Amino acid sequence: MDIKRLTGLFGAEIFGADIRDPNQFDDIRQAFVDHSVITLRGQTITPEDHLAFARRFGAININRFFAPLNSHPEISLVVKEADQTGAVGEEWHTDHAYDTEPATGSILHAIDIPPHGGDTIFASTTAAYDALSEPFKRMLEGLHAWHSSRHVFGADVADTDSARTGRIGNAHLATQDVLHPVVIRHPLSGRKSLFVNPQFTTRIEGLSPIESRHILGAIYEHCQKPEFQARVRWQPGDVTMWDNRATWHKAINDYQGYRREMHRITVEGCALVAA
Ligand code: SIN
């Protein structure tokens, strides 16, 4: 297989790989650990192949809120029909940050892609951490932050386009509130990484609301620098896996009037340890 880096800091495209081949798994897994986001171009796979590949990484976490694929409830359907306006995942986020054991990563398979747009952008929270000043790093390393599902998937969002169209549901299950370290030791790479994100993180424990808002704001502004970003432009058949403990991601909703369908499987993670 041929691995081409997407940027100088993270992300890679992989050509000539077949995710169905168990003999290629070790190399693909190593690429995932090394690059945080890997796009395996041109896969010809069924939902069963997608599931089998995900299971090699670990147990599957069935998302509580996303509509499932009818035929395969372990696969979430990430779809935007041509007449719908809102896309799922438009805000910068880390999947399942509200869980006590946040997911290892998600594996997105491109089924139907618009003629233009519909990219996914990633930000490396590892590269962003590395670039912080030493005094700021020292301050963050002692902190923990709260993450919640309530304000994103709870009753307050019942009137959004995604909820009205049934793409997001189960508002009554949005009851998670959890504390994680702000700087984690990545369970696979051993590198330090920021673990707060604009969508699910609600506040930093022990700080006043003003302090928390400004510290989180400074982290978010820093992480969103183009230097820490990589962009995946999809073709049907592509499979992208992202490291949930080393990146944020965001779906770009710039294809009004066209359909986009992706299948997503999320792999279970573990409790996060402070750096
Ligand atoms: C997601 O946030 O899981 C969806 C990303 C995408 O559709 O590009």
Q: What's the level 1 CATH class?
A: Alpha Beta
Mean residue pLDDT = 95
Question: Major sheet, described briefly?
Answer: 9 strands, mixed
Number of domains: 1
Low-confidence stretches: none
Relevant CATH superfamily: Clavaminate synthase-like
- Total number of helical segments? 7
If you compute it from the alpha carbons, what radius of gyration comes out, rounded to the nearest whole angstrom?
18 Å
Bound molecules: succinic acid
- In quaternary terms, these chains amount to single chain
The helicity comes to 10-25%
Characterization of the model:
The chain has one domain: Clavaminate synthase-like (Double-stranded beta-helix, 4-Layer Sandwich), CATH 3.60.130.10. The strands form 4 sheets. Strands 1, 2, 3, 4, 5, 6, 7, 15 and 17 form a 9-stranded mixed sheet that branches. Strands 14-8-16 form a 3-stranded antiparallel sheet. A 3-stranded antiparallel sheet has the order 10-9-13. The two termini are 34 Å apart. It has helices spanning 25-35, 47-57, 125-130, 134-141, 150-153, 161-164, 209-223; strands spanning 2-5, 12-15, 37-40, 60-61, 68-69, 72-80, 105-112, 120-124, 144-148, 177-181, 183-185, 192-194, 201-204, 229-232, 239-243, 247-251, 260-267. The mean pLDDT is 95. 21% of the residues lie in helices and 29% in strands. It has 7 helices and 17 strands. The longest helix is centred in the last third of the chain and has 15 residues, at 209-223. It is α+β, with helices and mostly antiparallel strands and 275 residues long. The structure holds succinic acid.
